[in-house]
Design brief:
Layout: H1 18-21, E1 34-36, E2 41-42, E3 46-53, E4 57-66, E5 73-81, E6 86-92, E7 99-105, E8 111-113, H2 121-126, E9 137-141, E10 150-154, E11 162-169, H3 191-201, H4 227-242, E12 246-255, E13 261-271, H5 303-306, H6 317-334
Parallel strand pairs: 2-11
Antiparallel strand pairs: 1-3, 3-6, 4-5, 4-6, 4-7, 7-11, 8-9, 9-10, 12-13
Helix pairs in contact: 3-6
Length: 335
């Protein structure tokens, strides 16, 4: 079942909807010329979607897709489909989206409209942007190392397009109610994974054999060679290496006003080296140290001047175990 563009008002002439609902010109593809082999898209996972054409046409898919040749994920594609042919694409629909959209144009079309970054596809459709695109768009880039073409930004949008919209659902995780995060616990990367990692790092269970006397990694403020901080850094190294990443530690030091050299901090970096574009970088990071408990004797002194840590908590669940957990789970998913 295909969900088509909704006629919002009867004041528009029928010809204005040719880009959305069909066309009197049999050579101009419309929404009826594309059959999408799903009724609903599932957010947060890669889903195989079959596109079949009853007329020569092109389809713009504005979502992450899995490239079958390289096994890499790429952002969006445009595919040409000849009359009577089909193409299957593995698509990752955003888990928080309520509506997904596929655009339809003439075979070989290069330029396409797109939404602004702060506008949803649902709003974009409601503004009649498919018939009257006002801004720039995207342009097709013929794939060199891929079976699918890629896209790039463009000042051109190619004019009106046909489209189909589909509902997006995100199933709740079995065994978890809404209060336990079940509504956000499905997909290849989800909130429950991050929460479980956060709990592991901040686990308050007593452990007399550990430096911080906890199963988790408490007291990990940077500086003065803090053993708990070094212990947490070693944990990060072991986790990133277990994902198959190359891990390099970068040490930073400073000298305080007492001329004492402090092993201030570590950057723990896990590398997955690129093959297609080895000189380009995508960096995802967070600070894993926390501020130490407040010291009432000298609460206002800057620790970077004196070398004394004087503020914060022992746990740092929000600042910044949450960020650290997201980095670790993202690294695990992408490795």
């Amino acid at each position: 079942m295909r969900v088509k563009a909704v006629l919002l008002t009867l004041l528009f002439a029928t010809s204005m909807f040719a880009g959305c609902l069909g066309s009197n010109d049999e050579n101009t593809p419309g929404a009826d010329d594309l059959d999408v082999g799903v009724q609903t898209l599932i957010g947060g996972i890669f889903q195989n979607v079959k596109f079949s054409a009853s007329n020569d046409l092109a389809v713009y898919i504005p979502y992450l897709i899995m490239n079958p040749d390289s096994g890499y994920v790429q952002n969006s594609t445009i595919i040409d489909i000849k009359k009577g042919s089909s193409v299957e694409v593995s698509i990752l629909t955003p888990p928080r989206a309520e509506v997904a959209l596929f655009m339809i144009g003439e075979l070989g079309r290069t330029d396409w409209p797109t939404r602004e970054s702060n506008v949803s596809w649902n709003t974009w459709v409601g503004k009649d942007s498919a018939n009257s695109p006002l801004n720039g768009g995207i342009t097709r880039v013929v794939g060199e190392n891929s079976s699918f073409d890629t896209i790039n930004v463009s000042t051109e949008n190619g004019g009106a397009v046909a489209f189909q919209t589909f509902s997006v659902i995100r199933p709740s995780a079995p065994g978890f109610g809404p209060d336990a995060g079940g509504d956000f616990a499905t997909g290849i990367m989800n909130g429950r994974m991050v929460y479980d990692r956060l709990h592991e790092i901040t686990d308050p269970t007593p452990d007399t054999t550990d430096i911080d006397r906890r199963m988790g990694y408490w007291d990990r403020w940077a500086g003065q060679g803090n053993p708990a901080y070094e212990d947490a850094a070693n944990y990060l190294v072991a986790e990133l290496e277990s994902f198959g990443l190359e891990v390099i530690k970068h040490r930073f030091e400073f000298t305080d006003i007492f001329s004492k050299q402090n092993p201030e901090a570590l950057n723990v970096c896990g590398y997955r080296w690129g093959k297609e574009v080895p000189n380009e970088w995508l960096v995802f990071g967070a600070h894993f140290d926390i501020a130490p408990p407040a010291n009432a004797a000298i609460p206002l002194l800057d620790p970077h001047i004196t070398g004394s840590r004087t503020y914060g908590t022992r746990v740092g669940a929000y600042d910044n175990t949450a960020g650290t957990s997201m980095v670790l789970e993202t690294a695990k998913m992408m490795s």
